[in-house]
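Morning F.,

Quick status update on the modeling queue. The single chain you submitted on Monday has been processed. Sequence for confirmation:
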Amino acid sequence: MGGLMNKTEIAFIGGSGLYEIEGAELIEEINIDTPWGKPADKISIMNIDGVTAAFLPRHGKGHLFPPHQLNFRANIAALK
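Structure tokens below.
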């Protein structure tokens, strides 16, 4: 697992429809494996008004995973 908190000040999971954040500048995207498998999507590291943040779309970009198929353990572990 990554150590994203070494790179970021905050991490958050977005729900349906939150795919673009106004004023956010993408720094990098990270693929992470966890003991529970892959999270819903890549984690985006971005600068939002001078704050470095990690963002994970809860259902994956394009809403790929319905609620009953979310790997919530992997999502949380990936951001940890």
